[in-house]
Amino acid sequence: MSDAVLITGAAGFIGFHVAQRLLQAGRKVVGVDSLNDYYDPSLKEARLSMLRNDPSFSFVKLDLADRAATADLFAHRFPHVIHLAAQAGVRYSIENPNAYIDANLAGFTNVLEGCRHNSCRHLLFASSSSVYGANTKLPFAVHDNVDHPISLYAATKKANELMAHAYSHLYRLPATGLRFFTVYGPWGRPDMAMYIFAKAIVEGQPIKLFNHGNMRRDFTYVDDVSEAMLRLVDRPPQGDPKWSGAKPDPSSSLAPWKIYNIGNNKPEELLHVAALLEKEFGKSARREMLPMQPGDVPETYADIDDLARDVGFRPGTSAEEGIARFAAWYRDYHKK
């Protein structure tokens, strides 16, 4: 395993696609996942079965909140770690906060300790656009302060960024945090809007539109996310010698730590997304207009200039193209 990339959350949506992309690039991958039942485990098993077709992939079932088991795993000394395992979902964090403490804080601590003690050369970890919280300046930039999260999920992701920085400062652990913006595509999560809308359209159910339909999201196609991560995995941050504590930039540090937005840089109206899905499935759905939900924000919009500058890539798959690919997968997977 000494030259393999370790991916936590490998049976999850983004983890599966990143693992596939690395395997296609000729890398060895060790995938870790707890296969919990936050959503249908059969979808996770189906993703995993595809990864297992590649002899360069191996899998370990593990809950990262298990300190001893995680320490044993990291003793294999992975040079590159991509940490995507987390308890996801803004709304679920209101119902079940302890799941976020266990997975996103305790689990991440165990990952940081594993990296620290086993000579990890680069930790790439998932943050979220949710950290922008109450910010209203658009587009959201990594150079903006993000001190006002409005959900526990967002607070745990902000905490992950801070925890990683502390380890980078104390132990010179190179760490890069990625703020994902509404990732969608084939094999997507059933608790996300794209999947929920598709299911409602196919089954003849109403589409629920919060904030009375006045919602915009920076939908980012999953292949663009995978490409960005492939370009970043071998680019550990070095620390910025020009960084100043007198005027601190929240996206960088003297320590080997960096934050990037991974977004499409083009917000889409949810009403437009619903219309594109209706076109793909050849069905119309009734719209149910509802008030804003707790912990939600009306718009997300990623400034991706730092990503483009540093790795020469800007996510850019159009909503039309990405939704067509997602719908084709949905029909095939669900035999609709």
Q: Would you kindly provide a written description of the structure presented here, covering whatever features stand out?
A:
The mean pLDDT is 95. Helix 3 (67-74) packs parallel to helix 5 and helix 5 (97-117) runs parallel beside helix 6 (152-171). The strands form 4 sheets. A 7-stranded parallel sheet has the order 3-2-1-4-5-6-11, with helices on both faces. The protein contains 11 helices and 13 strands. The chain has 336 residues and is an alpha/beta fold. It is 40% helix and 15% strand.
Write down the overall geometry. globular
Strand content: 15-25%
Query: What is the arithmetic mean of pLDDT?
Result: 95
How would you characterize the largest beta sheet? 7 strands, parallel
- Spatial strand order of the main sheet: 3-2-1-4-5-6-11
Report the helical percentage. Answer: 25-40%
Distance between the termini: 41 Å
Category from helices, strands and their pairing: alpha/beta
Number of strands: 13
Order of helices and strands: EHEHEHEHHEHEEHEEEHEEHEHH
Total of helices: 11
Give Rg in angstroms: 19 Å
Uncertain runs: none
Please give a handful of descriptors for the protein shown.
two-stranded parallel sheet; seven-stranded parallel sheet; alpha/beta; 13 strands; globular; 11 helices; 336 residues
Show the helix and strand layout.
Layout: E1 5-8, H1 13-24, E2 29-33, H2 41-51, E3 57-61, H3 67-74, E4 80-83, H4 92-95, H5 97-117, E5 122-128, H6 152-171, E6 175-180, E7 183-184, H7 193-203, E8 207-209, E9 216-217, E10 220-221, H8 222-233, E11 257-262, E12 268-269, H9 270-281, E13 287-289, H10 305-311, H11 319-334
Helix pairs in contact: 1-2, 1-8, 3-5, 5-6, 7-9, 9-11
